[in-house]
Amino acid sequence: NAGVTQTPKFQVLKTGQSMTLQCAQDMNHEYMSWYRQDPGMGLRLIHYSVGAGITDQGEVPNGYNVSRSTTEDFPLRLLSAAPSQTSVYFCASSSQSEGRDTQYFGPGTRLTVL
Amino acid sequence: DAKTTQPPSMDCAEGRAANLPCNHSTISGNEYVYWYRQIHSQGPQYIIHGLKNNETNEMASLIITEDRKSSTLILPHATLRDTAVYYCIVRAKTGANNLFFGTGTRLTVIP
I need a surface site. Which of A32, B15, B62, B101 has the fewest CB within 10 A? Predict the structure, then answer.
């Protein structure tokens, strides 16, 4: 299993540009989520999904959209990038059987917005 | 989720056991203790979790006191690759949707 994969690893955007961060998992996990990590702030939940076709907002959803058309993929879209969205973004997944709190994280996408 | 307190940093000699403490004096009966770690520039990694009994897996052991107000994560033979920030998280399985990582303990394994 590849686990949780994220692309790209690094991205630089200009203010106002849009882009999609990709996340995929091959473990057939029901639960997927997106976090952002800023220095000294810990991880904060952006959006999450409990299954295909179901998404919900986390702690800091503004400026981001998600969709979950398949079990495997959970892309995160930045609608109009702002410097405040400069951060490291982590995608995570977990299974019903193992428990939602045993989460497997991807390697992260380092985003800089100029 | 119950609040946790961890020392900000610890050192451990390579090959020795690393014992990382966590205080969670307000833990409720249905809350589990989870440990994650984050090696520099990587995503967090799940280590172990427990409710009441001590737990052991291929990565570590978790010792929870009888009153459940504190716990210790033990890495039996620390290696340089165990240098990371270790997070103790206490939460119920029906808790909020996000894991609250806090600031954790920065463990440095010294050669």
Answer: B15
CB-based burial, B59-81: b 16+ in 10 Å, e otherwise: ebbbbbeeebebbbbbbeebeee
The verdict on a CB contact (< 8 Å) between A33 and B45 is: no
Out of A4, A101, A104, closest to residue B99 by CB: A101
B42 interface with A at CB cutoff 8 Å: yes
Token pair in block for residue A48: 């999450």
Chain B neighbors of A102, CB-CB under 8 A: 34, 46, 49
pLDDT tens digit sequence for B64-88: 999 999 999 999 999 999 999 999 9
- Render the burial of A43-76: b for 16+ CB within 10 Å, e for the rest: bbbbbbbbebeebeebebbeebebbbeebbebbb
Cβ of A101 within 8 Å of Cβ of B42? The answer is no
B5 touches chain A (CB under 8 A): no
Q: Tokens for B12, please give them.
A: 């451990």
Choose among A10, A11, A15: nearest CA to A83. Answer: A15
Q: Closest chain A residue to B92 measured between Cα atoms?
A: A101
Q: pLDDT, tens digit, for every residue of A11-62?
A: 999 999 999 999 999 999 999 999 999 987 778 899 999 999 999 999 899 9
